[in-house]
Design brief:
mainly alpha
Length: 207
């Protein structure tokens, strides 16, 4: 029985030497062995190197992302710039067809261009109206224009059959621009601007 035990204790599983050799080969071929003992100074150097590499790679990724975003927005700006003249021309054509018998052509072109500049603006309706007419009504103070613009800022809200907008437009159809008073010209210019903004946001005839 004792001899049998000794014989069994000397027994090694098949392939045991090969497994050891394979493990040694893998360990010896590694440039760096993962430091399992974190209290050793060499381990701190190892982890410091890893952190530095991660920072470098992260910086490179951020730089690449910034460059890609910059190129994307540059392309987007170019596309938007190419579309703005088309939209302004469409709006100008609509204004010319609606008001050319009442308002000077140059004024309509100016209003169309100004309205398109604010397509993505979050400015209030009153501020947008002032932006559209300020150059054409430069003789007016901003405060006075804001007072005149207030009714038009709400002219297309609700379902009223008669609004400040269509009342002014209807009145203007019976007037001659050259003979209009400064007040009537200012009101009519604001009415055209309100029409332009409404048509810009939803290209159907709002009046």
């Amino acid at each position: 029985m004792t001899d049998q035990f000794k014989m069994n204790s000397d027994w090694s599983p098949p392939g045991y030497p090969l497994d050891i050799e394979l493990l040694e080969a893998l360990l010896l071929n590694q440039e760096r062995v993962y430091p399992w003992n974190h209290s050793i100074l060499e381990d701190e150097v190892y982890f410091s190197e890893i952190e530095n590499l991660m920072e470098i790679h992260t910086s490179e990724m951020v730089a690449d992302l910034d460059e890609g975003c910059h190129e994307f927005y540059q392309t987007l700006d170019k596309v938007w710039e190419s579309l703005q003249p088309v939209a302004a021309n469409r709006l100008n054509s609509q204004l010319q067809g609606k008001f050319s018998q009442i308002v000077p052509q140059s004024l309509l072109e100016t209003i169309a261009g100004k309205a398109e500049e604010l397509t993505t603006s979050s400015a209030s309706m009153a501020d947008q109206l002032i932006h559209c007419v300020q150059d054409s009504l430069s003789q007016w103070d901003i405060e006075d224009l804001l007072v005149l613009a207030r009714p038009f800022a709400y002219a297309m809200r609700g379902g009223e059959e008669k609004t400040a907008l269509d009342r002014v437009v209807q009145k203007a159809s019976t007037l001659d621009w050259e003979s209009c008073s400064e007040l009537d010209r200012a009101r009519l210019t604001l009415a055209v601007a309100r029409y332009a903004i409404a048509y810009r946001d939803q290209p159907i005839d709002p009046v």
